[in-house]
């Protein structure tokens, strides 16, 4: 009997770590800081709400709260971030100009690949990619007028 319970527990834990899957959800919080010293809280969540087996498309619900403003949209994508993509990114991290870093957020501690890019508009975007649904554990965007920090992955829920 105790072997059956142990096997069931192992299968549940293994299943909960597999992604992508319907029900996977991640949430980030952060702050937009302006040069004048003002700041606005930010909350972003992404959730896999469906998978269409006929079209092979994932449906993603994206919700954003910026101060008092809330927005929500649903998008469809053909591919999502996977554990295999993370392993590939991690193995090529330094050769692609990134750095391997361990970061801690309220949802846990993660081995990540930090990649810094500069957009054509001059924004500096730092992303810490980890082994979680949607991949981004933390993000920081900087320009000459603002600094956006989304450095706290609040929670991570695995699909059922």
What does this structure look like?
The protein has helices spanning 2-17, 83-91; strands at residues 25-34, 39-52, 57-66, 69-77, 99-105, 108-118, 124-129, 136-142, 146-157. By secondary structure, it is of the alpha+beta class. The chain has a single domain, classed as YmcC-like fold. The longest helix is centred in the N-terminal third of the chain and has 16 residues, at 2-17. Residues 1-16 have low confidence and may be disordered.
Topology record:
Elements: H1 2-17, E1 25-34, E2 39-52, E3 57-66, E4 69-77, H2 83-91, E5 99-105, E6 108-118, E7 124-129, E8 136-142, E9 146-157
Antiparallel strand pairs: 1-2, 1-9, 2-3, 3-4, 5-6, 6-7, 7-8, 8-9
Please give a handful of descriptors for the protein shown.
single chain; 160 residues; alpha+beta; YmcC-like fold; nine-stranded antiparallel beta sheet; 9 strands; 54% strand; globular
The CATH top-level class label = Mainly Beta
Globular, elongated, flat, extended or rod-shaped: what is the shape? globular
Mean of pLDDT: 82
Which blocks of ≥5 consecutive residues have pLDDT under 50? 1-16
**How much strand?**
over 45%
CATH domain fold name: YmcC-like fold
Got a strand count?
Answer: 9
* Strand arrangement in the largest pleated sheet: 4-3-2-1-9-8-7-6-5
Could you spell the SSE succession in H and E letters?
HEEEEHEEEEE
């Amino acid at each position: 009997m105790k072997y059956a319970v142990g096997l069931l527990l192992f299968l549940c834990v293994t299943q909960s770590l597999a992604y992508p899957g319907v029900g996977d959800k991640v949430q980030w919080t952060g702050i937009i800081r302006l040069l004048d010293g003002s700041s606005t809280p930010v909350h972003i969540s992404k959730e896999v709400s469906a998978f269409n087996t006929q079209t092979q498309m994932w449906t993603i619900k994206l919700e954003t709260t910026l101060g008092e403003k809330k927005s929500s949209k649903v998008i469809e994508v053909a591919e999502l971030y996977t554990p295999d993509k993370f392993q590939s990114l991690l193995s090529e991290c330094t050769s692609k100009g990134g750095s391997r870093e361990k970061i801690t957020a309220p949802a846990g501690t993660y081995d990540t690949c930090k990649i810094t890019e500069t957009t054509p508009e001059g924004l500096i975007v730092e992303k810490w990619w980890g082994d979680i649904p949607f991949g981004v554990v933390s993000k920081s965007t900087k320009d000459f007028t603002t600094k956006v920090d989304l450095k706290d992955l609040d929670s991570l829920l695995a699909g059922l």
